[in-house]
Design goal:
The chain has a single domain (20-208), classed as Vaccinia Virus protein VP39 (Rossmann fold). It contains nine helices and seven strands; from the N terminus they run ααααβαβαβαβαβαββ. It has helices spanning 10-14, 16-19, 31-36, 40-49, 64-72, 83-95, 109-112, 149-156, 173-182, and strands at residues 54-57, 75-80, 102-106, 120-123, 162-168, 188-196, 199-208. The chain has a seven-stranded mixed beta sheet, with helices on both faces. Bound molecules: 7-methyl-guanosine-5'-triphosphate and S-adenosyl-L-homocysteine. 7-methyl-guanosine-5'-triphosphate (MGP) binds at residues 11, 35-39, 124-127, 129-130, 132-133, 166, 201-202.
Length: 215
């Protein structure tokens, strides 16, 4: 492992080919990218479930999800508030030869949100770093960054009829149910426990607006 990385990164470095199968072609990322990027096989599967129309990856990071969306969806918009993350994402997307298929935007998702429309909104926000796993139950009201899960869902559901959230494995399932029931009429919810090599890695929550009805 290069000396520049802190000891925290060691376990992620050991998983580098799980994170990016083309790692040796020059994949590059920063410290937050290492501990946040969605492992390739998981991102590939999530993209297969979101494969149609326009997808917005609202917290792009170093591009783990955006690269897979670009291989399955008609149009991908990739947003991150950190210009260097968008730089890494663009570079990594070029390694997968999909950089031309993604519109990269440096910006704050919450500021851009009122101007966005899509078929699917994908949310993979900061969980508060690797320490998320130190608590028994992850509380979306207090631990998600930069805004709580309720704000995130409410903003996202104005943009698309499908909202997909990638969340910690210890997330409170009752809070996910509360989110779906908070919409009027309630949105359907499917929660997937994501296992990789026999280990629970994370949870993906798929929310969908019901086809008809109103309040
Ligand atoms: P982990 O729990 O830090 O790693 O993250 P691992 O290998 O399961 O550690 P172990 O010691 O429990 O074995 C698991 C996965 O969650 C990472 O590969 C990322 O895809 C995702 N992830 C982790 N963090 C801290 C974040 C985050 O802050 N934001 C997002 N979007 N994803 C994260
Ligand atoms: N799924 C990504 C990882 C996302 S990590 C991947 O596979 O690579 C979360 C990202 O959210 C970080 O890169 C961080 O810079 C970004 N972020 C934090 N606040 C944001 C905001 N308000 N708007 C857009 N991006 C934000």
């Amino acid at each position: 492992m290069p000396d520049a990385y802190s000891a925290t990164i060691e376990k992620y470095w050991c998983q580098r080919y799980i994170l990016f199968s083309r790692f040796d072609d020059g994949v590059n990322m920063d410290e937050e990218g290492w501990f946040s990027v969605t492992p390739e096989v998981i991102a590939h599967y999530q993209a297969s479930r979101c494969a149609s129309g326009t997808v917005i990856d609202c917290f792009t990071g170093v591009g783990g999800n955006a690269i897979q969306f670009a291989q399955r969806c008609n149009h991908v918009i990739a947003i991150d508030i950190d210009p260097s993350k968008i730089g890494f994402a663009r570079h990594n997307a070029a390694i997968y030869r999909v950089d031309d298929l993604i519109d990269f935007i440096v910006g704050d998702f919450f500021v851009l949100a009122p101007k966005l429309k899509a078929d699917t909104v994908f949310l993979s926000p900061p969980w508060g770093g690797p320490d998320y796993a130190k608590v028994e139950t992850y509380d979306m009201k207090t631990m998600l960054r930069p805004h709580d899960g309720y704000t995130l869902f409410n903003v996202a559901k104005e943009i698309a009829s499908r909202v997909v959230m990638f969340l910690p494995r210890n997330v409170n399932f009752n809070q996910l149910a509360e989110l779906s029931l908070s919409a009027c009429p309630p949105w359907s919810l499917e929660v997937e426990k994501v296992h990789l090599n026999g280990k629970l890695k994370a949870v993906t929550a798929y929310f969908s607006r019901p086809p008809v009805g109103g309040c």
